[in-house]
Each structure stands twice: as C-alpha cells, then as structure tokens.
C-alpha cells in the first residue's frame, strides 16, 4: 500500500464516536418524542435519589458525630475510617447511577492501603473520601429534595387535574374553586361561582398541560442532579478509573448525544489540513 493510500485509509477508518445516520429513528425523533422516550431513564435517576440521600445523611451524620464525640477515647479515631468508607460507597453509588443515566463520570481510584492499623488510619488522609463525605452528607440531599419534589408535584398535579371531573364532585360546593378564584383575582371582583362544569374543564386543561410538559420538567430535574453529581463527585484525571473509551455503551446510544456532551472524543485523522 502506497503512503497516499495509507493516508486515505487512515482518514476513512479513524473517526470519532459513532453518529446516528440521518435516516435512523434516533435522528428522526423530535425533541418531544425524545423526552417521552427517555422518560424511564430520567425517572430511574430522579425517583430513588431522594430516598438514597435521606438514608446517606442519617447514616453518615450519626457515624461522623460518634467519631468526633468518641475521638478523645480513641474509639472515634478507629470509627472515622468507617465513616469515610461508607461515604465513598454512597458516592460510588451516585457515580454509577449517573453513568447509567449517560453522564461520563468515572469512579475514583483510591490509594492502596497497607495492612494493619496504619493502613486503616491512612483512609483519613485521602482527600477524595472527605469530598465524598461532604457531598453525600451536606449537598446531595437538598438538590434531590428539589428534584424529587418538583417531579412528583408536577406529575400528581397532572393526574389530579385530568381526574378532577370525578373526585371534584365530592368537594364542598362553596364556590371557592381554582377557576373562580383566578377569575375574581383577575377582574378584582368578588368570587362568583362559575359552576362545576367550568371548573372541571379548567382543571382538565391544566392537567393536560402538566402531563404534556412533565417529561421536559423531569428531564430538567435529571440534568440538575447530574450537574450536582458531576460538580461534586467527578474525579480528577489522576483519580479516574475509567476513560472515555471505557464509558458504557449505552452512554452514546440512549440519547446522550442529544442531551449530554461526552468528553474525550477522538479527533479525525487528517481532518485539519
């Protein structure tokens, strides 16, 4: 093979990450269909996050408080590495959940420990474990409270509005429906009962809007959690155990190319000439 042919072959074979063909279903999907297609992926990230963080805060705060309180009698000195190891376990769980969602986050590499008491106490000297403890016990829960609350409230509001025609009949008929209050506030007039049919129609329309926009809101909450995990738990290059070539395959096939920019793309040979 001549040098010219070899150069042409390298330009043809060496490419970046696979790109979906123009005519493929993924390329043809609209933004609306992508959000509905990724609904399960976003739900699996957002829904359990609150409960995981709640358990992490309870366990880590109790362990850290016991470690500090009993450090004077040396019990806390031995208990503090346990606290940091548990924090790392929760942090690695957050990294794995983010990776399954599609974010290119690798697990951190911890220094190998020596045997015996010295190796056990060396855990306390690792900066990454303290970062894991700080994130999982302080920052993760507030973020996941917001994401979980907004997503659940939006979905429940959609279901409540769509089914108001049924359960709204059992509410006291005192003329204080949402539509009546909105009309009275808009016109700056006394509240006037517009009737159950008008209220049910308004609630149904509002519920339909919430339902249609729910995938976008859920995806925004998933992106917020991913941003928090990336900022707090993404390892430095020297700590990463996984490179961009080792990212799980689904990270480039489940819509991540549309929503998340993967790092470490391989340049095309001879592209810039």
Question: In a few lines, what is going on in this structure?
Answer:
The chain crosses the membrane at residues 45-66, 72-93, 145-167, 200-218. The chain is mainly alpha-helical. The protein is 65% helix and 0% strand.
What does this structure look like?
Residues 47-229 form the Putative sensor domain. It holds the Pfam family Sensor. This protein is mainly alpha-helical. Helices cover 65% and strands 0% of the residues. It has helices at 3-13, 25-28, 31-37, 39-69, 75-101, 116-121, 127-162, 164-167, 178-187, 196-233, 256-259. Helix 4 packs across helix 10. It is elongated and about 75 Å long. The two termini are 22 Å apart.
Rounded to the nearest angstrom, the distance between the terminal CA atoms is 22 Å
Overall spatial form: elongated
**Average residue-wise pLDDT:** 76
Please compute the radius of gyration using only Cα atoms: 26 Å
Question: How are the SSEs ordered, and which strands pair?
Answer:
Layout lengths: L2 H11 L11 H4 L2 H7 L1 H31 L5 H27 L14 H6 L5 H36 L1 H4 L10 H10 L8 H38 L22 H4 L14
Helix pairs in contact: 4-5, 4-7, 4-10, 5-7, 5-10, 7-10
Descriptive keywords:
mainly alpha, single chain, elongated, transmembrane helix, Put_sensor_dom, transmembrane, 273 residues, Putative sensor domain-containing protein, disordered C terminus
């Amino acid at each position: 093979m001549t040098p010219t042919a070899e150069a042409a072959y390298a330009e043809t074979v060496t490419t970046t990450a696979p790109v979906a063909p123009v005519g493929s279903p993924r390329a043809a999907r609209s933004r609306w269909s992508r959000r509905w297609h990724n609904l399960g992926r976003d739900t699996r990230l957002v829904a359990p996050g609150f409960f995981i963080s709640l358990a992490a805060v309870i366990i880590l705060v109790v362990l850290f408080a016991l470690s500090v309180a009993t450090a004077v009698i040396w019990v806390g000195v031995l208990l503090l590495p346990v606290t940091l190891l548990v924090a790392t376990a929760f942090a690695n769980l957050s990294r794995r959940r983010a990776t399954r969602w599609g974010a290119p986050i690798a697990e951190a590499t911890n220094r190998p420990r020596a045997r015996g008491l010295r190796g056990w106490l060396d855990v306390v000297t690792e900066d990454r474990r303290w970062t894991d403890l700080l994130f999982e016990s302080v920052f993760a829960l507030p973020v996941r409270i917001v994401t979980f609350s907004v997503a659940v409230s939006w979905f429940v509001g959609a279901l409540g509005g769509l089914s108001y025609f049924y359960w709204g009949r059992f509410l006291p008929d005192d003329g204080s429906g949402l539509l009546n209050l909105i009309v009275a506030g808009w016109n700056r007039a006394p509240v006037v009962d517009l009737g159950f049919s008008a209220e049910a129609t308004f609630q149904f329309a509002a519920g339909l809007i919430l339902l249609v926009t729910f995938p976008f809101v859920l995806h925004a909450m998933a992106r917020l959690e991913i941003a928090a995990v990336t900022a707090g738990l993404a390892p430095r290059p020297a700590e990463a155990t996984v490179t961009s070539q080792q990212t799980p395959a689904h990270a480039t096939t489940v819509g991540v190319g549309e929503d998340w920019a993967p790092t470490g793309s391989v340049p095309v040979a001879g592209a810039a000439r």
